[in-house]
Design a protein that fits this description.
Layout (H helix, E strand, L loop, with lengths): L1 H6 L2 E5 L3 H11 L4 E5 L2 H10 L3 E6 L8 H10 L3 H4 L3 E5 L4 H10 L3 E4 L4 H31 L4 E8 L2 H8 L1 H18 L5 E6 L2 E7 L3 H16 L2 E4 L2 E4 L2 E7 L8 H17 L5 E3 L2 E2 L7 H5 L3 H9 L3 H6 L1 H19 L5 H7 L4 H14 L7
Parallel strand pairs: 1-2, 1-3, 3-4, 4-5, 11-12
Antiparallel strand pairs: 6-8, 6-11, 7-8, 9-10, 12-13
């Protein structure tokens, strides 16, 4: 048992109520190795002495040092392993003022003590994955990039007017939108990507082996997908839009993950100031007209095969040119290995793909290796 527990991610629970600590621990102990402390000061000392803690869950009202004070110490620490820790503030009441203050001080997430077990575990797991990704990138970033044969890019995804939605329709509606976006992201990202909750209505997607063009194309598809969702609350119809900021380590291998997140977040702010419902990168707003050519054309071959097998050939036919483009590097490789004389030039001509297109596809194929985003 001890060996199994030691392999689980360690979560520090800081709360002055023994019953609350016991309840939280009971809910999550099958997934996490739990350490408990009774106040903020004890929690702070635990963090200084225990480098294995990956996530902090803290109450607000506590003796000696409250949750806000503990959060300030964590974010102000000179130790990078401490100041970058994900902190989940947990409160007995759903108070907007407390939530706003926690976010201002740098809380990663905020939930109430009545949050269902499934959601609580999902949020902690997302924070653990964020902490592990940060540590891996910071400790051996060059090896990670080399292993993934490409860049590391970050998207910060923000629900437009999230606070206003919560004020007008209640925080339960805001949380529902938050969960819908979380499920949508989980369904569309690649298996090697990391999704992290940064705040209510805000997520980060950390993507190895993905450049800004690819991120921009994915962000545009994500924005279109969320626009199709219409929620009904009483007599109101609620439409949701996203502003997405992009940042990439391309050209500057010294950029840390924290710096990439800050850059992407600053571009979300730029997009919000321009009215929201935008995708913004270092070059300005990303649109279908200026996103990279390869990203515009690339398609999911798995999706195309599923359409064909299910009898929806017309849908695949509509994107036949893009399918040929995406498959061309693979077919060139097959032809070079088996020397069967595939009529690639004739196929490219039929699909109206230029030599420049083929050069771009071949040069980029080794980076992607069949791992296109879904959707």
């Amino acid at each position: 048992m001890t060996e199994v527990a030691a392999q689980l991610p360690r979560v520090l629970i800081v709360d002055d109520s023994r019953m609350v600590r016991a309840s939280l621990s009971k809910q999550i102990r099958d997934k996490f190795d739990v350490r408990e402390e009774a106040d903020g000061e004890a929690g702070w000392q635990a963090l200084l002495l225990d480098p294995t803690v990956e996530v902090v869950i803290s109450d607000i009202g506590m003796p000696r040092l409250d949750g806000f004070g503990l959060l300030q110490r964590i974010r102000g620490s000179r130790l990078s392993r401490i100041n970058s820790l994900p902190v989940l503030i947990i409160s007995g009441e759903d108070e907007d003022e407390a939530r706003t203050k926690a976010q201002t001080l740098g809380a990663t997430d905020f939930i109430t003590k009545g949050t269902p077990r499934v959601e609580l575990i999902a949020r902690i797991e997302a924070l653990v994955k964020l902490a592990q990704t940060r540590r891996e990138l910071e400790e051996s970033r060059e090896q990670l990039v080399r292993r993934n044969r490409g860049d590391v890019s970050v998207m910060v995804v923000q629900v437009d007017h999230y606070d206003e939605l919560c004020t007008n329709f209640g925080h339960s509606v805001g949380q529902l939108i938050h969960r819908k976006l979380s499920k949508l992201l989980s369904a569309k990202v690649r298996k090697e990507d990391t999704i992290a909750h940064l705040a209510e209505g805000q997520f980060a997607v950390i993507s190895p082996s993905a450049d800004l063009d690819a991120c921009g194309a994915f962000a545009l598809r994500l924005r279109r997908a969320i626009e199709t969702i219409v929620m009904t609350y009483k007599e109101h119809r609620i439409r949701v839009s996203l502003t997405i900021g992009l940042a990439s380590a391309h050209g500057d291998p010294n950029l840390s993950l924290e710096e990439l997140l800050q850059l992407a977040a600053s571009r979300v702010s730029e997009g919000t100031m321009l009215g929201g419902n935008r995708v913004v990168s270092e070059a300005g707003e990303v649109t279908p007209d200026n996103v990279g050519r390869f990203s515009r054309l690339a398609v999911s071959l798995d999706h195309a095969l599923t359409q064909i097998r299910s009898g929806s050939k017309e849908e695949a036919r509509k994107r036949l040119r893009e399918i040929v483009y995406t498959m061309m590097p693979l077919m060139e490789f097959i032809d070079s290995e088996f020397h069967v004389g595939l009529p690639l030039a004739e196929l490219a001509e039929k699909a109206q793909i230029t030599a420049l297109d083929l050069h771009t596809a071949t040069a980029t194929a080794s980076q992607w290796s069949g791992t296109q985003w879904r959707g």
